[in-house]
Write a structure and sequence with these properties.
The structure is a homodimer of 235-residue chains.
Chain A (H helix, E strand, L loop, with lengths): L2 E4 L8 H10 L4 E3 L4 H11 L12 E4 L2 E4 L1 H9 L9 H25 L12 H29 L12 H16 L1 H7 L4 H11 L2 H8 L21
Parallel strand pairs in A: 1-2
Antiparallel strand pairs in A: 1-3, 3-4
Chain lengths: 235, 235
Amino acid sequence: MRYELYYWPGIQGRGEYVRLALEDSGADYADVARSDRGMAAMMKMMAARSGTPPFAPPFLKAGQLVIGHTANILLYLGSRHGLAPKSEAGRLSVHQLQLTVTDLVLEIHDTHHPLGPSLYYEDQRGPAKRRTEEFWKERVPKYLGYFELLVKNNGGSYLTGRRVTYADLSLFQIVEGLRYAFPNRMKAFEREIPGLVDLHDRVAIRPNIKAYLLSDRRIAFNEDGIFRHYKALDI
Amino acid sequence: MRYELYYWPGIQGRGEYVRLALEDSGADYADVARSDRGMAAMMKMMAARSGTPPFAPPFLKAGQLVIGHTANILLYLGSRHGLAPKSEAGRLSVHQLQLTVTDLVLEIHDTHHPLGPSLYYEDQRGPAKRRTEEFWKERVPKYLGYFELLVKNNGGSYLTGRRVTYADLSLFQIVEGLRYAFPNRMKAFEREIPGLVDLHDRVAIRPNIKAYLLSDRRIAFNEDGIFRHYKALDI
């Protein structure tokens, strides 16, 4: 089956966590909205007047199923493609981690958009500075410290043990993104999270991930996405 | 089996969505952390040095399983207690809705905490005012308009059709909470969402919910939770 991923073209955004899972598992998929025609198809599906169209991209078409929300898509893909256990307990456990990543991603977005997603960054520079301070002082140590502890608790390779899951792929993206958005702050912080840096490096050399990162399917980080590099926010 | 729910005592918070599902289905459960001893047990479980302890409350103990994150707990409970379909497609669809509710709940919290969860509201009154304006102008119409459309699309009773799901119980709580936090704004807005108001009323008279709301198990809204009533934010 060929999956169809629907997500905004031009940014990594929330769609990237799905792309990493599809790429790592070598699944056959089309990144539909990266053509004009695909973009029109995406908007049409979101405007469906029956059933439960997704609130927002990303969503995945898998045969007749249309699955919305990043973590939900990963829940669906994970155990089918060896990126999560097949047991219910194992699936719930990895999904729990992904939902914590989801919260973190929203907080990362809020560093440059503390007054809400509909205003420009340029209209909220002052509050963005304050939120970013708070984020690095309180939230990054709490979130990344938690994930670091899990890696240590479970043998030092991945979050849940010796096998990679989609939550590990997502943490790779978190480390990549924080390095892009906050190079100075992240450089100083990385000494606190040696286990996560190792995990990041281990994911980066997985053959399918490595090939993906070098391909033009990987969209570059930019200032329309979740991870944005604004000098004023990176001391 | 007697479930054990672990959540901060004294607030409804994210735990309330789980409580509503447990109460509606008549499940046997203990709200553990509402005693001092239970609170100590909760902190101990979160500090576990093996496996994947949850990042934050709420979490649910179901036999040997410990399930963290509100939406994940509801995913587990839903199809076991008649609050979600049993088919994979149905479960994913209701979970998708719950994840959209999760995003909305975070945005509601940000109205009074735009500069981050670790600072007091009193230290961010100005930004809170701006974020709240934005929230009511752009985000409430987008989110609640979406859910309103689903109710209409699917026959006028509940989000996915004629059978109630845990996502409907959560939307009941959203309507209750917005009425508490923003009575003036919500009163003016409710004319836009007659379907959701009906859904709210239909949930409120379900016998188990009605009994729960009248019991002392239901914690009152207060200014430590997600929905906070600050006059300055409600024009």
